Amino acid sequence: MPINRREFATLATASAIISTTRTSAKPTDQPYHASEIPNTGPSERVLMLVYPGFTALDMVGPQYAFGSMVGAVVQLVAKSREPVRSDTGLIFSPDVTFSDAVPDPDILFTPGGLRGTLSAMQDPETIAFMRERGGQAKFVTSVCTGSLILGAAGLLKGYKATSHWLTLDLITRLGAAPVHERIVVDRNRITGAGVTAGIDFGLTIVGMLRGATYAQAVQLLAEYDPAPPFAGSGNPRTAPAAAREMIDRIMVKFRAEASSAVAAARP
Question: Which of 94, 103, 210, 255 has the fewest CB atoms within 10 Å around its CB?
């Protein structure tokens, strides 16, 4: 049975997912026939903030999903083009800087982290950039404690949002209405909970922009079918008391520092 170009584009997604709009590799360097992948989708422009000490997995999961959208231009943005080291030591190379990033991205995204995030939310240049681009972006988004950065930039006032469970209550003081959910969509604000929620977050946005079948194909190629070895431990509501108490003890200092950073914010 013949199929039209739109249907073929959907079927070709599995091949397209392997590519990334950030690379400049020639088609002959790729493990698939690039000429067989029609670029019929929109050309979404995605800016993903990176800063010293951000949590790599907060960004990498969504970046995989965004990079799977044929035609999208996904760029890492930072204060300079100097390599940026994440919290676990992975190093990322920004594509653009605050000064040369597109003024009106379709998606503006920030990952979270620990002290790196607190430093970013107190950095005038970073907050000015997020506030300016956030005012022009089609979607303003974050994962994990990245919501603190959005909040510090005044981008969550009057919106429902989520965050890592350790900081969920703090976003109230930044004007947001906290919701304990993995993904929260309120108009053009889309926020994800902690770390691994970034994968769900990315797939959610792909589904919104490209349709359910496209997003399902991305999820299938990623073989995203989570079955955690310790069921229930990834949610503060269901985690064993011993695990919760351990994290509470470990993160006492961070909680205090985060509270101080929120108090100092001028959203």
Answer: 103
